[in-house]
Specification:
By secondary structure, the chain is an alpha+beta fold. The protein contains five helices and 16 strands.
Length: 359
């Protein structure tokens, strides 16, 4: 019985020691977890822990997710990097802040163990007590932000200090990148232009005047399509003393591709297309033995246009155009059996007028 009792006591002692060790391990693990999850610390050195400036600064640091450890300083406590780092190291803080009154200003000292730097800034007092506290508190936090800003950009490229940057603080100190707003896509624009134009023929037909209507649809900032219409106003003429005169007028409609380049209020405008034209020729004042006559002919002619525009209002532009066209088959103008002129070898149309831009 005695031997059995001793063996039972040994077993109980082993169970007790095992439970004690397990408890200590659990306590150690819990303490480590609590420590790892605790907020990063900043040491705040002040000679008056109860003043409003200290309270305002603590509140500002709390917004960053920082635990503030207030350390009372005496009148003989030296000011400098060594003191700040020593206090921060002693209380387990990654940075230390100290407010030092200097006449009508205060000096804000910030030393952080992440970059190993100490920065100082003079902060003017505010006009009142609350304004003064706000100015000092915001100045101190901004100074801490400036000190750690390089870490938020790339910690690996910077000089390491004694401790790693607290992720919570780095996340809140990192400025949110301001993304440039996406460039809006160019909206389709409809441009309507009306131009009185001078029509010039280069083969013995005098100049005439036409009215030209241009409607453009721009699907991008530069490229678009256009439709044009041309109506005669003053007919071009050719004369002979004996056999009379002939007048020519052209009505046309066309389609083309346009390109425009714009810099501020000035634009360069180009067009290339094809138009279908109706040429009407009238002979009059015929000599003895000759009769007046009238004839018309349909034909096609490619055109090339270049011009410039000046925006005078937000939706109004004045434009000048020169359009060159050449008939696929130039048309001769005959008096009896003699050719006295022709149309379409080539023709030039010069116009100026307003253009309305509609979004």
């Amino acid at each position: 019985m005695l031997a059995f009792g001793r063996r039972g006591s040994a077993v109980r002692r082993e169970w007790f020691l095992g439970a004690l060790i397990a408890g200590l391990l659990a306590l150690t693990l819990w303490s480590g977890t609590a420590l790892a999850g605790s907020a990063p610390r900043v040491a705040l050195l002040t000679s008056n822990p109860a003043d409003t400036t200290t309270k305002r600064l603590k509140a500002e640091l709390t917004q960053l997710g920082v635990e503030t450890v207030v350390v009372r300083t005496g009148p003989n406590t030296p000011v400098g990097r060594v003191t700040l780092e020593s206090v921060a190291r002693r209380v387990g803080a990654f940075a230390a802040i100290r407010i030092v009154p200097v006449e009508s200003e205060v000096e804000v000292w910030v030393a952080d163990r992440v970059t190993g730097k100490t920065v100082v800034r003079e902060v003017l007092h505010g006009s009142g007590s609350a304004a003064r506290d706000d100015t000092i508190a915001l100045g101190a936090v901004e100074l801490l932000r400036a000190s750690l800003l390089e870490v938020t950009a790339s910690y690996e490229l910077n000089t390491r200090g004694e401790v790693a940057p607290p992720p919570v603080v780095v996340g809140k100190l990192t400025p949110t990148p301001t993304l440039a707003p996406p460039r809006p896509k160019a909206r389709p624009v409809v441009a309507i232009g009306l131009e009185p134009a001078l029509a010039v023929e280069f083969d013995r037909i005098g100049p005439g005047v036409s009215a030209m209507l241009l409607v453009r649809y721009l699907w991008t900032k530069s490229w678009g399509v256009e439709a044009l219409g041309l109506l005669p106003v003053v007919r071009g003429e050719t004369r002979e003393e004996v056999r009379g005169k002939a007048s020519a007028a052209v009505s046309a409609a066309g389609l083309g591709l346009t390109f425009s380049w714009q810099e501020r209020n000035v634009a360069a405008l180009f067009g290339l297309g094809m138009m279908a034209a109706q040429l009407e020729v009238v002979g009059a004042n015929a000599g003895p033995g000759l009769e007046d006559s009238q004839d018309s002919l349909a034909l096609g002619a490619p055109y090339l246009r270049a011009g410039a525009g000046l925006r005078v209002f937000d939706a109004v532009r004045i434009r000048v155009d020169a359009s060159l066209s050449c008939a696929l088959r130039p048309v001769p103008i005959m008096f009896v059996q003699d050719e006295v002129a022709s149309w379409g070898r080539p023709s030039l149309l010069v116009g100026i007028g307003p253009e309305l831009l509609l979004p």
